[in-house]
Specification:
globular; Aldehyde Dehydrogenase, Chain A, domain 1; six-stranded mixed sheet; alpha/beta; Aldehyde Dehydrogenase, Chain A, domain 2
Length: 344
């Protein structure tokens, strides 16, 4: 299967997803709709709304024009495929799909260890590809036990699991990802609409993704009521039992520890130097100058940060509301996955 055929395959996958989200007129479409509904059984955070959101984003990206433009930045030569081991996380829906796409579209085979928390939708996607062309029957395999017979590994996990990944896979070419989170820098010049969009960056997927904003940097004397007003449209999250349990637990911890925090009934703002705020909490920190916060984010904390959301603050910033709508060229941890795969 050459590059053009692989692009056509994934473009067809995008068309399938788009159609299946609105009509279940054949077996695979029915399978995808069932997977959307049943995903929450294996992962309580995977609500149908969030799974559909992830699929809708991929349906937009998987078209011939975008795939071709993405790959035009590289020199791709047809060669013997290597086998890439993929160890996927399960924190948000389809979080490992970009790695699978990158490996397959560059002509490699994949051996996938899926997360038990994120299997159903990915299984339907793989079934579509295998039905689309027999090539994918040999190119894609799901590994249940130990990962063996591979040429390179892309593994995503926590800081703790990364140590094990480095031990087991360090002898092979690898990308090993650790914990990261995202931050927003508020300057006070944001429009009401931009602040409303910030709610998407904080609360989409309940804040569980590395691209979710869990920390705010705000100017001294900034009125934090602006933040509470902006995130109010997400008040419905408190109706989710698991989210509500986390809110109650973290609020109790703050109260028992006599921490100062602000509370609006479904989320808490806590002044804290930490980066990873717990569910239903948002850490914030004041800054006194653009230069100081720029140095902190771009130098001191760079390896902990996935995205910086801001307006006219830094060259690599992401617009408000777009963290959970990454483009094909938005690589996790800033490591170019396609470039890595082409050099194996």
């Amino acid at each position: 299967m050459n590059l053009e055929q692989r692009i056509d395959a994934f473009s067809s996958l995008g068309n399938f997803i788009k159609a299946a989200l609105v009509a279940n007129d054949h077996e695979l479409a029915q399978g995808l709709q069932q997977a959307i509904q049943h995903s929450q059984h294996s992962n309580n955070w995977f609500t149908p709304e969030n799974v559909r959101f992830a699929l809708e984003n991929w349906a937009k990206l998987l078209n011939k024009e975008k795939l071709t433009t993405w790959l035009s930045n590289y020199t791709l030569k047809e060669s013997s495929p290597k086998t890439i081991g993929l160890i996927m996380a399960g924190n948000i829906p389809l979080v490992g799909f970009h790695d699978m796409l990158s490996a397959l579209i560059t002509g490699h085979y994949v051996k996938i260890k899926t997360s038990s928390k994120d299997q159903l939708v990915l299984t339907v996607i793989i079934s579509f590809l295998k039905e689309y062309d027999p090539y994918f029957k040999k190119a894609i395999s799901i590994v249940q036990g130990k990962l063996e017979d591979y040429d390179a590994v892309i593994a995503t996990g926590s800081n703790n699991t990364a140590r094990y990944f480095e031990y087991y896979f360090g002898h092979k070419p690898n990308i090993i990802r650790k914990n990261r989170t995202s931050v927003a820098v508020i300057t006070g010049d944001e429009s009401e609409e931009e602040l409303l969009l910030l709610g998407n960056d904080i609360f989409r997927y309940f804040g569980l993704g590395c691209r979710n904003v869990s920390k705010l940097y705000v100017p001294i004397d900034y009125d934090l009521n602006n933040i509470f007003g902006a995130i109010y449209p997400w008040k419905h999250l408190i109706e989710d039992k698991k989210y509500a349990n986390n809110y109650d637990y973290n609020k109790a911890v703050y109260l028992m520890s006599e921490f100062d925090f602000l509370d609006n009934g479904f989320a808490m703002l806590k002044e804290d130097s930490g980066m990873h705020s717990p569910i239903a909490s948002i850490f914030y920190e004041y800054y006194d100058s653009k230069e100081t916060i720029s140095t902190l984010i771009n130098d001191t904390l760079a390896e902990q940060i996935q995205c910086v959301v801001s307006k006219n603050f830094t060259s690599n910033e992401i617009p408000f509301g777009s963290t959970q709508q990454p483009q094909l060229e938005d690589y996790a941890d800033g490591v170019d996955t396609v470039d890595f795969l082409l050099k194996i």
